[in-house]
Amino acid sequence: MGHIKAKAVNRQSPKRGDRREARRAQLVAAARIAFLAKGFAATTIEDIFRLTETSPATLYAHFTSKFALFEAVVQDEAQRIWNRLLTVLPAETCIPVPLGSFIATVINIVADEEMIGFLRLVIAEYRRYPSIEAIFHKTGPRVQLLISRHFQHCEELVGLSPECAAVTAGIFVSSIANVQLALLTGFAKPDELATLSERLTREIRAIIDFGNAPYMQGGQK
Fold it and tell me: Are 176 and 116 in contact (CB under 8 A)?
C-alpha cells in the first residue's frame, strides 16, 4: 500500500506544481497591469486581489510582500524583453539584413509604449529598491551584446573593418538609450517610433560612410 500511495503522490505532484506556477504567473501578470496603470506606490494589494479574484492567503503563499511581487514583475519583464529579442535575433545565428530593417525591429521592441511605461515605473522606484536596478543591470549587458553582434552583420557594415564595426555597434546601442530617454521625457511620442528609426538609420549610415573613408581604412585620401 505504501508503494502505491507513493506513486499516487508522484502523479499528483506535477499537477499541484503546475497549478501553483499558473497561479503565480496570474499574480505576476495582474500586478504588472496594476503597477503600470497606477505605479508601485499607489497600487494596493487589494487592487491585485480584485484583478485575480484571489484571497490574501493565496497571494502571500507565493510572495511575502508587495515588493517581492514587484521584484517578480521586474524579473519577468526583463525575461520578456530578452525572449522578444531572441525571436528576431537568434542567439546562435547572425543573418545579414538591411540596416534600416534591423534598426526598426530593435527599436520596436526596446522602445515600444509598454517598455517605456515599464522603464518609467522602474526609474521611479529604483532609489528606494536597489535590487530592482540590479535586475536590469544583470540583463542589460547580454541584451547589448546580442544587439551589437547582430548589428555588425547588417549588410551595410560588411565592408567595415572589425574595429569600425564594433565601434559603430556601440554607438547604435547607446543611441537606443537616447531614444528611450526621448520617449520617457516626452521629447518624442510613441507614435513617432518609425520616424525615430529612420532618423537613427540615417545617422548610423553617416557614421558608416565615415568609417568607409580611405583614411579610416588605412588608405590614402
Answer: no
